[in-house]
C-alpha cells in the first residue's frame, strides 16, 4: 500500500488548477470579444436617429488602476420629450462641453453617440 504525500498531491493538482484558470481567463476574453462584436453589429444595423432631448445628468467611471493605466469613461443621460431616458458613452471633449439642462437635438445610432446640437436660447 502506497501513501500519497502532500508533494505528490500538489504535483497532480497544480497542473489541473492552472489549466482551469487558463480556460476561465481565455473564456472571459472570448466572451467579451463576442459581446463587443454583437453590440457593434447591432449599432450598425440600427437607424441613425435625431431627436429633441435634454441633458439630465453626467457621470464618469474609472477603469483600470495604477498611475498610468487608469482611464475615465464618460456617460451622459439624455431625456426625450416622451420622458424616456437614454444613457450614452461620450468622449471627454463632448463630456466637457455638455451641461446638465442643455436642450437640443441628439443624434445617435443604437447605443452609439453621434452628436448633440444645442438649441439657441
From TrEMBL:
Lineage top rank: taxon: Bacteria
Membrane spanning residue stretches: 12-34
Entries under InterPro entries matching the protein: DUF2500
Key words of the record: Membrane, Transmembrane, Transmembrane helix
Protein name: Conserved domain protein, histidine-rich
Amino acid at each position: 500500500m502506497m501513501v500519497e504525500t502532500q508533494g505528490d498531491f500538489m504535483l497532480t493538482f497544480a497542473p489541473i488548477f492552472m489549466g482551469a484558470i487558463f480556460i476561465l481567463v481565455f473564456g472571459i476574453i472570448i466572451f467579451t470579444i463576442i459581446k463587443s462584436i454583437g453590440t457593434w453589429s447591432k449599432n450598425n444595423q440600427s437607424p441613425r436617429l435625431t431627436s429633441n432631448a435634454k441633458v439630465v445628468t453626467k457621470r464618469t467611471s474609472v477603469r483600470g488602476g495604477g498611475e498610468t493605466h487608469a482611464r475615465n469613461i464618460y456617460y451622459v443621460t439624455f431625456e426625450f420629450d416622451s420622458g424616456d431616458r437614454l444613457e450614452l458613452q461620450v468622449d471627454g471633449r463632448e463630456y466637457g462641453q455638455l451641461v446638465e439642462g442643455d436642450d437640443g437635438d441628439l443624434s445617435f445610432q443604437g447605443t452609439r453617440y453621434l452628436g448633440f446640437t444645442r438649441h439657441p436660447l
